Amino acid sequence: MNDSLIKQLSGTEISLQEPTTLFSSNNHEVYWLGNLEKTAFRCNVYLIKDHDEAIIVDPGNNSFFNVVKERVAQIINPKNVIGQILCHQDPDVAASMTSWLDLNPKMKVLTSPRTQVLLPHYGKSDYDYYDVTKSHEFKFSSGNSITFVESPFLHFPGAFVTYDPIAYYLFSGDVWAALDMEWKLVVENFDEHVEKMDLFHTDYMSSNLAARGFVKRLEDLQLQIDAILPQHGSIMSKENVSKAMDYLKNIICGTDIIYADLK
What we know:
By secondary structure, this protein is α/β, with parallel strands linked by helices.
């Protein structure tokens, strides 16, 4: 396991004009593709490249499609993006889905059944749907794979996360998301970062029960996670993974607050 690249990025100036390499080993790479938003709700888009193939993780807002495509082109021919992972259907995650399908109609859409029901409302339904709840593993042509873990009600019933066992990275979607105007690519102080995660989780996540249940699902993986890469906010390196798990175990959110008078 190796999270040294992410550690090296902590506290450094990040270019928005080119992709940022987060992992690279034996023709398997992970990139952060940049973010031009200047709001606390800024979104991260990631690319997993394996040899001559790539998968884009939560491709995002359609207004940023051309910029994201340009960043991908600096790494690989965008037509060699064979799949897009959509951890749920919200527009900040999935609105550019149709633009990627226009570019490569054979591209797989890797998502859950509950998300799949809603995605055609973006205007396309004739695509290659890959059900991550039936096939918890997706293999590249090289034989390398990524795996999926469902995260129900965090914050959508059909939400899930993606684990890359080559990089030891967990792409967590909205789980561990944070809202922050003074954004950094990598968390520098976890205790200070908690308040920024609270701004998101308190309102968006359903309950402590859902959070604890998800952590339990990750028990076998926890010691094999070198970084957590959320869709909003900052990446967490290995030193903060156990703290991130404890954060979810103890969080009070959603219905815990709204119905606090009920037991």
